[in-house]
Specification:
Keywords: Mitochondrion, Ribonucleoprotein, Ribosomal protein, Transit peptide
Strand order of the largest sheet: 1-3-2
Radius of gyration: 21 Å
Largest sheet: 3 strands, antiparallel
Mean pLDDT: 88
CATH class: Alpha Beta
Number of domains: 1
Structural class: mainly alpha
CATH topology: 50s Ribosomal Protein L17, Chain: A
GO molecular function: structural constituent of ribosome
Family: Belongs to the bacterial ribosomal protein bL17 family.
CATH superfamily: Ribosomal protein L17
Shape: elongated
InterPro entries: Ribosomal_bL17, Ribosomal_bL17_sf
Subcellular location: Mitochondrion
Length: 156
């Protein structure tokens, strides 16, 4: 009997369930250590939930047994548990969610052309990322459209 899939399925990352979990644990550990990492967009999007979930539980404090269990599971380098509870959790204490920022970056032509992204914890001491430029009124396309509209409006 085939069941109907409701909701979001887990993405297939790695070579199986254990490989996927190991990959996500390593990414979360690197994010806590460096506070900014570069990876594929799919991996960044998938690990974002777990990184934010870890901060949400760390805000409860290191006396909470569930928070300590989660930190022990997700952080493969145990020296980062102190950073999680003493540095990151107080930084995000006044905030309710949205602890990470993900910015897409150009594809790497000489590799597999996978979409790349940078994911970071907000408020980190690193220099800010340049945000993607939005279309302004001075772009070529918008100037051509403006000229077309003006020309069409006068000829009618």
């Amino acid at each position: 009997v085939l069941g109907i899939s409701h909701g979001r399925l887990r993405r297939r990352i790695g070579l199986g369930p254990r490989s996927r979990l190991d990959l996500l644990r390593n990414l979360v550990t690197k994010l806590v250590r460096h506070e900014r990492i570069e990876t594929t967009r799919v991996r960044a999007d998938e690990m974002r939930f777990y990184a934010e979930h870890l901060i949400e539980h760390a805000k409860r404090g290191d006396a909470d047994p569930q928070a300590m269990r989660l930190a022990d599971f997700w952080l493969t380098e145990k020296d980062l548990v102190h950073k999680l509870f003493k540095v990151l959790a107080p930084r995000f204490a006044p905030h309710q969610g949205g602890y990470t920022r993900m910015v897409r970056i150009p594809k790497n032509d000489n590799l597999d052309r996978a979409e790349r992204a940078v994911i970071e914890y907000k408020g980190n001491p690193l220099p800010p990322l340049p945000l993607p430029r939005r279309d302004g009124e001075n772009t070529l396309v918008n100037q051509l459209l403006k000229g077309y509209r003006e020309e069409r409006g006068t000829s009618v």
